[in-house]
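Forum: Protein Structure Q&A
Topic: Joint prediction for protein chains with partners

I've read a bunch of threads here and the consensus seems to be that you should model interacting components together rather than docking separate models afterwards. I'd like to see that in practice. Below is the full input, 1201 residues plus whatever partners are listed. Could one of the regulars post the assembled result?
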Amino acid sequence: MSELDVLKELESMRMAGLEALAKVENEDALQAWRTAFLGRSAPVMQVFQKLGSYAAEERKEIGQAANEVKVALEGAYAERLSELKERATAAALASESLDVTLPGRPVVQGRLHPDTQMLRELFSVFGEMGFQVYRSREVETDEFNFQLLNFPVGHPARDMQDTYFIEAGERGDNPILLRTHTSPGQIHAMQEAAATNPTNPPPVRIVLPGMAYRYEQTDARHETQFDQIEGLAVGPGITFTNLKATLSDLARRLFGENVRTRFRASYFPFTEPSAEFDIECFLCGGKGCPVCGGGWLEIGGCGMVHPNVLRNGGYDPERYSGFAFGLGPQRIAMLRYGINDIRYFWENDLRFLEQF
Amino acid sequence: MLAPLSWIREFVDSGLTVAEIAHLLTMAGMEVEGVQIIGLPMPEPGTVDTKVSGLAWDREKIVVAEIYEVMPHPNADRLVLCRLYDGHEEHIVLTGAPNLFEYKGKGPLSEPLKVAYAKEGATLYDGHQPGWVLTTLKKTKIRGVDSDSMVCSEKELGISEEHEGILFLDMDCDPGTPLADVLGDAVFDIKLLPSYARCASMVGLAREIGAMTGNLLKRPAPPIMPPEGKADFAKISINDPQLNPRFVLGLIRDVKIGPSPELIRRRLKMAGIRAINNIVDATNYVMLEIGQPLHAFDYDVLRERAHGGKVHIITRSASKGEVLTTLDGVERKLDETTVLVCDEAGALSIAGVMGGGESEVTDATKSVLLEGAAWNMINIRRTAKAQNLPSEASYRFSRGVHPSMCDKGVSRALELMAEWSGGRVAAGLVDEYPLPPVSPLIEITTHDVKRWLGISIPADEIAALLSRLEFKVELSGDAIRALTPDHRLDIEEGVAGKAELIEEVARVYGYDNIPEARMADLLPPQKSNIELEKDERVRDLLVAAGLQEVINYRWTTPERESRLNPPGAEPDDRPYVKIANPLAYEKTFLRHSVMASVIDTAERNARNRARLALFEIGPVFLHGEEPGLPEEKKHLAIVLAGQREISGWQAADTAAMDFFDLKGVLEELLNGLRLPDVHFEAGRHPAFHPGKCARIMVGGKQVGSFGELHPQVRSRYDWPATFKAPVLAADVDIDALYPLIPALFQTTDTPTFPPVLEDLAIVVDEKAPAAEIAKLIKQTGGKLLTDVRLFDLFRSEQIGAGKKSLAYSLTYQAPDRTLKDEEVKQLRGKIIRRLEQELGAKLRS
Ligand SMILES: [Zn+2]
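Posted by a regular:
Agreed with the consensus. Here's the joint model:
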């Protein structure tokens, strides 16, 4: 064959190879194609084997041309191979696809009681402000629940805290009772701290969480057993401005950076001056709604520790001052999560608890 | 306390709106819990920071009108037709008001009757429906007469509950005037805290408003003057001035009992007090006006009791068993703490709380002896509580009414009685005043104010703030000396008084005007709170194990808790901590057992959940030997019952949880608390199945027990019929457990050399406890045997009766090298020989 004939033939080999390759639809066929067009006995390979029969000039040109055809077929092969692989993968994936809208496998999940969750949040916020947790007993004496907190025997302020008494024999003016607030802990804590250095008692900065009890009929807003957290800061330079800052900081942490707070005059026997602490209603933005009434939500009571209480705790009111406040973790949770009945908390219906 | 705006305004010109007054009072410590609008325009939403209710009267449609003639209805006896003029035109209006009947058919009236007239389209309250239902006047025909307008009752206007007749206006006003301009009002509902007793009157509230706004208080005009002359109509003996520091009597003769003026009646009603007659109304009016409760006696009854002698009023404590019938008709047994107002013939009234029936003012009364007294607030509070007699008088007396008010109250009421009843006031007052209180004189400095409030206020400004509340102040340098005014009892002597004065400074200064400043004081010594940290750790571990925390009421009943004791078991005879004044039997006893609480919780939830996994940490209450403060012991209780997994659409393990589910939770918990030397022993507990009960031992000490509820115990609870699973429960004594928890724990290195894993199956006697076998294997394997795990347990005929087969997977590992086969083989041999020797175990091939 003339050189020209060979070159023509090579071109038709290339065409035939590519044409056949285009019809290959799976990897088996691809291997067969490869054997046919690039295998040892493939026409292109034959050309290489016969190269020796051409003159040097012709040999070079034919060799080059044959090589070009071989490279082209090899390239086409590789391309086709990866194409087929991709197609196979896609087909496999398509066959494995799930109905992703089916429900997930149920997980057995444990949960903390919402009150514990609320308390943990409060402990953390107060902890960052330096308040440590102090807990004390739930059954108390009249002395610690009332008298040392400046509620004298028979004082009308006691009407604000109707009391459950415990049967404990005749004890005169010092009956045993269920604490009506966590404030007896204020006296315990101050007395303990003062005992460490009676002449120069150390400062106190604590929160007092726990159950308290009021003798009243229950309804959606009132419980006879409820949770309280009080705060107490005593030191040589504690002022009303500090009280305002502490509670406003708390409100901003709990209810959002822009929440407005207000302090209005009030009365508690164990603080002087006393205040109620309100936040602007975050449900209606302060416009007034069924929850808040007039745009403000009562969060708790507070004030400067009464001089008599400081003295009863072992702190000289002429040298020390302090502030105290009381909040209801349940009330805060109720406001934040739209809980309509305070009795849900200790009824422990899982349909309620599992929402937290 | 209910306070009408118009009445407050009689004593102070503040120029403030309803919303502003509500805000001011609330901020100053007298929380306004609601405002009821009576006719005035409704404040814009969002402008009043309290609840607003009530009705605004349309200025065009509800106006003053004059009735010229009341005519009979042609075909209805109980209806009349009024010819009236509304300022523009005449109308014939149909009404059934009984208080118009006396004018019926009398022809044109000599003096027209001024009434409230509502035209078509006006919105009013429906007088015929209970409660407050709004209705709008529409054109209708009643008994053949067109009726699109009406003359109104107080109820229809929202002034009071009164719907017996229509309202007559007794003020000077022209027909056509919008009614709101004449009668429009607002009533503040104010919550008065115990220290605000001085504000329980219109003058008291006006004084505060005046102080906060810098306006002077207008006094009741003319100023209250006692009747001139020397009194000789009675004498007074006070047995105990501590209980009765002052007692004042006044007398008015020739009174004609009748209704009080309309304005007075309306004001009393708006303030929540029933109008009765001109004498009783005068006592109530003065109480609301200036705060001094008064009591009126029929003087002639007292004269009769004195058999013509001088009326002698004696105040004394009741004798034991003494009885008095109060004017509500109730015969009351009194005790020795009750203070009585008596004459020589016996008791007349319970001091400061309620009068007696015999000497009360009646329609026949001619002369009235008027009492204005001061009482000990603690004593009055006790009596009012003991007799369950809360009254307007005891409300004030039990919070403290200053004795200086007694004569003012009596004089003012005599003045009003004379005006309203035509009586003649007798000369003088009888005034017994054995114990005048000392008005505290308190000194504060600018330094005190700065130290307490954190702000610097100049001394003259402090003085000015206090004088607005009527303190008499004197300045010397940085010090302010303030004399307490004689209407308040809430300022004490000494350092307490200082704080109270600082509160007054802060209130008038305005809490809002005091800035915020974060604490600059040093932090106290920081201490760990180990008990709290452990509580939280226990909670976290149990939550991670899939349990739900619960928190129960501390109340229980012995019956509820004794369900845990099956018949025949020893009863729990430890005395309960018991409430002396329970609200209900279910709220009488404090619990002995947290476990009982949590089982109760499980019982309640079994209806709604197929899987129950609950725990609680909380106190139990145990009386010690002596009555007194009980011990509060902290316990942890866990209850598991029902499905192991929650079923979904895929396969799940829905078998009932058993003893070993609970044991697994406990093992995780104790392991998570890093407790060393934990083991479990078969135990006995009355609540548990005798063969499915274990004691939890830590370091040789029992810290709790757990098991499956005894079938006889389980059946005492009300489980739904579909809930058949065993109930597993644990009770852990937290106080015993926590001290055993090590402060720190040590980790082991992650192994770098490969382990050798092997199985070992043996057959042993049924009686050999699994814990013993594992212990033997571990002991023998020593340090190189790093893990022993039981993975199979079975019994079969093939291995023989009374035998069981246990299969363990053993992990051998050295920290510093790869173990040689030879070493492992030797160890395995040792272990097998030990098991054979000590337990008679046979290797299973
Ligand atoms: Zn709101």
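Residues 3-94 of chain A form one domain.
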